[in-house]
Amino acid sequence: MAPKITVLFYSTYGTNHGVALEAARAAEAAGAEVRLRRCQETAPADVVDGQEAWRDQLEKTKDIPEAKPDDMEWADGYFISVPTRFGVPASQFRAFIDTLGPSWQSGALANKVVTATTSAQNPHGGQETTIQSVYVTAMHWGAIIVPPGYADPVKFEDGGNPYGYSCTPGELDETGKKSVAFQAKRLVEYAGKLGN
Ligand SMILES: Cc1cc2nc3c(=O)[nH]c(=O)nc-3n(C[C@H](O)[C@H](O)[C@H](O)COP(=O)(O)O)c2cc1C
């Protein structure tokens, strides 16, 4: 059976949306069944509407289904991409995560493979801590974390974050896409090995 992967993202301005699209493409190419899901926008409508770039991004992704607990229960693995906010994941991601209490309690989140990516305005503005924060939550679920490490030569060209691909806005170039694809393929590979 094809491994089932949920690509879960939140994106205010499009960077993590771009990463999620690459991840979904690569996971499918690696043989997975993929659900691409976005975290619901929780910022007040007047705040979103007050920024053209934010409003445009929300409009652009309106046809991507919002993530539901079933998307997490269904999958064998998660590819998570979220922006850095003051060194940790955006609250829109956390708001979704906070709906997962019953799924966790029933044991439905255990034994999944997880990998994460992020973006931040500054290369040292919290990319590593954001990804690690996602992994801390994954550990509470009993997940198996699948970081890229330096297990592919592309990791010596993409900025070299071993926890997960990370970039600044506008930086997702061909090398970045190769890195995201490697990370997604590795996730699918390990989902398959575990055979949940
Ligand atoms: C409230 C807020 C907090 C942010 N905190 C950080 C930060 O701690 N470090 C940093 O480098 N960038 C920070 N940024 C910039 C975001 O990380 C950047 O906009 C994001 O990575 C873009 O991703 P997106 O295009 O998917 O929305 C912050 C942005 C906002 C709006």
Automatic annotation (TrEMBL):
Pfam families to which the protein is assigned, alphabetical: FMN_red (PF03358)
Instruction: State a GO cellular component annotated for this protein.
Output: membrane
Q: Where is the Flavodoxin-like domain?
A: 5-195
Q: Which residues form a coiled coil?
A: none
- Which EC number applies? 1.6.5.2
Q: Write out the entry's keywords from A to Z.
A: Flavoprotein, FMN, Oxidoreductase
The protein here is known as NAD(P)H dehydrogenase (Quinone)
Asked if the record carries the keyword RNA-binding, the reply is: no
Taxonomically, which superkingdom?
Bacteria
Q: Does the keyword Oxidoreductase apply?
A: yes
GO: which molecular function terms? FMN binding; NAD(P)H dehydrogenase (quinone) activity
